[in-house]
Amino acid sequence: METISAYFVYIPGIIIFLVGSAQVRQWLFGRKNTVSALVKKCRRIVKKDQKDRAVFNYFEITAQSASGEMMSVKSPTEYAENQEIQILRGKNAQNVIAEKTERIFHPLAVMTGGALLILLALAENRGNPKAAMVYLCTIMLGAGFALLFHFIDLKNRNLSPISAKIIDIYVRQLSKETKIICGSRFSYYPVVEFLLNGKKNIRRLIVNSSRKDSFKQGASIMLYYDAQEKTVLEHKAEPAALIAGIALLAAGLLSAASLLSVLIFAQS
């Protein structure tokens, strides 16, 4: 049992490493295959079954790139005419909307953190507390630095607030009811409309909820525009990120100081 339980400590690191490596592949692929385009046509496609249930419910978008190339893409949400979007060229001409995600941790940092967690588990299983402490300190210092950098970066961007109106709720089904699972599970995403540089923009937000009544059509929600990067963010600099970053940095520095004192004492 002890041998089996020793392997379980590797699981968090392996999962984070695999998630990070997948994000790195997506990041590298997106850098090479993302094209800016203007929406020329947006048509809703609804197909229902015999019980009048929507089997397909999406928007067929025709967009034109700066080079004049016309591209077709399917999207779960609507976009306004002449709205600028990012299209990710997929394999076999399967284009998708490249929605920008607001990541606190860079994909390379996530993958590195997973690798450090695996090394931490390895050091613990081999009975090497000093090496384990080094890996733990590195993880805490790296995470703390990333949170602080994220907070300072958002703080220095001089973001302009934008008032957006919720015009629709996009429903994503996560699981269906079965004999084992009781009840279907859904996620609800607000779709908002706002003016940017005099043009109407529509986008589905990243924020979501498992509760149907979390977002109301017609309600207002605040977004933030970064004029330098020409991107719209859903969040400004949050004090929670600052507090968590300081706490992790402090814990990492204290752990490093403790380890250093142990090493000095062992040599004397």
Question: What would your notes on this structure say?
Answer:
The radius of gyration is 23 Å and the shape is globular. A five-stranded antiparallel beta sheet has the order 3-2-1-4-5. By secondary structure, the chain is an alpha+beta fold. 39% of the residues lie in helices and 31% in strands. It starts with a helix and ends with a helix. The relative contact order is 0.13. Helix 2 (11-33) packs antiparallel against helix 3, helix 3 runs antiparallel to helix 4 and helix 4 packs antiparallel against helix 5 (239-267).
Task: For this entry, give a set of tags.
single chain; 268 residues; alpha+beta; 5-stranded antiparallel sheet; globular
What is the alpha-carbon Rg in Å?
23 Å
Strand order in the sheet with the most strands = 3-2-1-4-5
Number of separate helices: 5
Main sheet summary: 5 strands, antiparallel
Helix content: 25-40%
Low-confidence parts, pLDDT < 50 over ≥5 residues? none
Could you report the average pLDDT, rounded to the nearest whole number? 84
Strand content: 25-35%
| SSE pattern, N- to C-terminal | HHEEEEEHHEEEEEH
From the spread of the alpha carbons, the general shape counts as globular
What's the helix and strand layout?
Elements: H1 2-8, H2 11-33, E1 34-48, E2 54-65, E3 70-75, E4 84-88, E5 96-97, H3 107-125, H4 129-155, E6 160-175, E7 185-196, E8 199-204, E9 220-226, E10 231-233, H5 239-267
Antiparallel strand pairs: 1-2, 1-4, 2-3, 4-5, 6-7, 6-9, 7-8, 9-10
